[in-house]
Amino acid sequence: MSTKRIAPSILAADFANLQRDIEMVNQSEADWFHIDIMDGVFVPNISFGMPVLKAINKHATKTIDVHLMIVDPDRYIQTFADLGADVLTVHYEACTHLHRTLQAIKAAGMKAGVALNPHTNVNLLEDVINDIDLVCIMSVNPGFGGQSFIENTYQKVKKLKALITEKGAATEIEIDGGVNDKNAKALVDAGADVLVAGSFVFRSENPTATIQNLKKIVS
Ligand code: DX5
Ligand code: ZN
């Protein structure tokens, strides 16, 4: 059985029918909820914040994977723990003291993730990889759903997988942005463990079947 995971991104859900879309994910073969928090400073978009996450957590029955696209994320680590985040991912580019931030996330009882923008070299994580539970490789520039997948991602995944193996780390690899049924298999073959999918799931005619199909592709 495959341990590869599918994480629908709630950014692409219908916010006027949020409970319906959360229940759909609960009932589907999806593994995680991917929650994008954007501050309008680190990325050129503002998504949603604490009250919405609180509402999601009330209904979601699966792992809550929070992707912080915000500056100075240290300010909110405890807040996100209290709101029910299971995995908390910060951006490499937003953390001056990444090692300290990772320890703080773990001390608050969550798994610690680091996201890399498309221009950020995976080797920059060499000295901290053993402290990271999840590396999120951005396969689009963060800020918006529905963008096209950057092809250079495959070589980044392979390079990161080699680094994880070399260091004997237990780090998982997540891919975020432009994931669909055309690139899912190649991403998993390159070493990915978790695939985030927003538009591809929620803009499809039958999101439950789309998740099932993605799950089948990565098995
Ligand atoms: C982009 C977000 C992604 C986004 C993915 O900044 O981090 O999680 O929701 O959406 P799609 O799958 O539509 O590219
Ligand atoms: Zn994301």
Automatic annotation (TrEMBL):
**A GO biological process this protein is involved in?**
pentose-phosphate shunt
Q: Which GO molecular function annotations are given, in alphabetical order?
A: D-ribulose-phosphate 3-epimerase activity; metal ion binding
Q: Quote the catalytic residue positions.
A: 36 (proton acceptor), 176 (proton donor)
Which Pfam families does this entry report, sorted A to Z?
Ribul_P_3_epim
Q: Report the superkingdom from the record.
A: Bacteria
Name the InterPro entries for this protein. Answer: Aldolase_TIM, Ribul_P_3_epim, Ribul_P_3_epim-like, RibuloseP-bd_barrel
Tell whether Zinc is among the UniProt keywords: yes
Q: In which pathway does it act?
A: Carbohydrate degradation
The Swiss-Prot or TrEMBL record lists the needed cofactor(s) as: a divalent metal cation; Fe(2+); Co(2+); Zn(2+)
Its family remark reads: Belongs to the ribulose-phosphate 3-epimerase family.
Protein name stated in the entry: Ribulose-phosphate 3-epimerase
What species is given as this protein's source? Kordia algicida OT-1
